Amino acid sequence: MTSDVYAGSNETAQGKVFTVTGQDWDSITQGLEDDVEERIVVNMGPQHPSTHGVLRLILELEGETVTEARCGIGYLHTGIEKNMEYRSWVQGVTFCTRMDYLSPFHNEMTYVLGVERLLGIEADIPEKAQVMRVLLMELNRISSHLVCIATGGMEIGALTVMTIGFRERELVLDLFELITGLRMNHAFIRPGGVSQDLPPGALDEIRSFVALMKKRLPEYADLCNANPIFKGRLEGVGHLDLAGCLALGMTGPVLRSTGYPWDLRKSQPYSGYETYDFDVQTWDTCDSYGRFRVRLAEMWESLKIVEQAADRLANLEGAPVMVADKKIAWPSQLAIGSDGMGNSLDHIRHIMGESMEALIHHFKLVTEGFRVPPGQAYVPIESPRGELGAHVVSDGGTRPFRAHFRDPSFTNLQATSVMSEGGMVADVIVAIASIDPVMGGVDR
Amino acid sequence: MTEENSNVPAPQGEVEAVGVRHGMFGVSGSGDTSGYGGLVKQTVFPAASQRPFGGWYDEVADALEARLKATALTAAVEKVVIDRGEITFHVRREDLAFVAQMFRDDEGLRFELCSGVSGVHYPEDTGRELHAVYHLLSMTFNRRVRLEVSAPDADPHIPSIVSIYPTNDWHERETYDMFGIVFDGHPALTRILMPDDWPGHPQRKDYPLGGIPVEYKGGTIPPPDQRRSYS
Q1: Strands B214-216 and B219-221
Q2: ipTM
Q3: What does pTM read for this prediction?
Q4: For B33-50, how does the pLDDT look when each residue is reduced to its tens digit (9 = 90+)?
Q5: Do B86 and A378 lie within an 8 Å CB cutoff?
Q6: Helices (H), chain B
């Protein structure tokens, strides 16, 4: 037995402990020779490529069967909710966009909807802002589902699914970059509207993306839908029926894979979703394969919504994207100058050269922010992973008194035990991949 | 709204003030000549609503009342607040488990899904500093309600409803971790996000945000919780 400083073993009160780092299975089997014990506890993660970020799994195995599975979370806790209490209401967007990093627009949206309800300006949001929000959220749903399918494929060894998934996601991120200036962490959806207008040429890019996706989405179906290895790994794995889903608070594709068409975009529409033509996708197998098919079908539905939103935006050129109330609206739309992006030159000319009051107003709104009447609101939305809601509480000040996010990854991850106990250790990975947890959202 | 203008006294019984804010610019002790430093403003939360509530709110309240009367627990719901289209039932903490069970099982209520619990710390709400807020969703009727329970800082105990809504397992652990609310009857109430040996409960208002001053180009910016803030 070669001595590996990293893959050593030592005796503890609980028994013999091995540290496994990969390619060192031989040292364990040799080390176990003398005292063969069937029951072993495996600590998988937190740094493990197939646990979706920094998720730690504590698995109790008997042979290859999982008898107990527990999650250890908190490795990515960054105190976002606490931090938001020390910034203005508008700055809060910059924080919450970083939680579930695969669906930043949904994080922003649920928070902003809560703030808008507290402000009582839900009906005053300009139509163009609403359409842009829907457009971005649906593009985001596509990119998020692509990552889910891609990483899920990678974890079961289907590397082609990974490469094509990230190939298409890159195109969506390019669109985000064109529209918001950033690939991730956009802070683009603001209380009252969105932070800037659609740049010229964006609609053409969106349309060509939709056209390309219509060619490429069938590739996923061809590659996976009837693939015997893919089906063999996914079918019947991670089973959770409707009663189990409701008891555990599961929403999103996991719930819809039980055949129950619950989608907040349909049942409790926001941002004008009721005016778009799309269907809620379901599957009836309650397993990982069903969740894959639901996600695949949802991308088609999202493409449909993106097309409709692009058509509407074509008729809304020059329309406002921020609420008319100057006490809430950010004073200036951003513009590209010779030294990068900043306040538009017209606005700077106005506040610096023409109106002292406008300068004061700009200064007060940007440094102090607006006040939000006391009360609490909870406006959940359908994120790619399920019900995402922000419980925002105001005490009448310029900063949130409390912002709590009900993140679907956090809630859904609780199903790990039910989905994987009694199954094979390799199926744990598939079950977790089918939940699609994003640890940034779980730990916040 | 009454809170818009604190010079006009609000009618008796309609105000629930939680705290007072002084001044306007978050500084004190400076030679304030603007007069804004003397501003005193009450924080007034939405007051209790009276019957009829209108819409489906009455149906829910009726179903709830009928069941409560049958069990002689009429005082379980302290007040009902309808604000911005959301209904909140303030529930006495000892009756929370019973009320939650009813919300889940009653045929007229059927709130199948609980969206977890969110803690809020109101240091100035004396005797009811810690609030636990539950959002329930009825998929059958497509309705949402909010349950709010409070506990004093000195006795931070609230009954657990994990046996009714198992999804609250991690949510209650998180609220315990962040606020120190002890959910009695939870199967394993341990910290979930913070390390096991962490002292204190970070999201309470008396827990500082922390941070270090940042130096940039000769200037020093204090940590976020010590910067000047607008009240």
Answers
A1: antiparallel
A2: 0.87
A3: 0.88
A4: 777 777 787 778 888 888
A5: yes
A6: 56-70, 96-105, 168-179
